[in-house]
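REQUEST FORM: STRUCTURE PREDICTION
Request ID: SP-0412
Submitted by: Lab K.M.
Chain count: 1
Length (residues): 90
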Amino acid sequence: MKPETDAFFISERRSPLSRKTAWLFIKHYGELADLPLSAHPHMLRHACGYALADQGADTRLIQDYLGHRNIQHTVRYTASNPARFERLWK
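STATUS: Completed
RESULT:
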């Protein structure tokens, strides 16, 4: 059954979760995962940026997708990553 909203985080009643509730869920599940730092929603943006870069997405595409006005905020995701070089030669 399709949700009644385009929100990413939805409740059992298919309505958008509040910003605070989503933040608390992410923090809670970060603690359950025993992450070495406190999880927060902005980490999802970072994870998305790094995942797009790891998949070879163009820097301008990542910039547009993340809504960055300044390309310098995006280049951090495309900085050299040793794992990318390993996959390049396989």
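NOTES: The chain has a mean pLDDT of 86.
Reviewed by: T.R.
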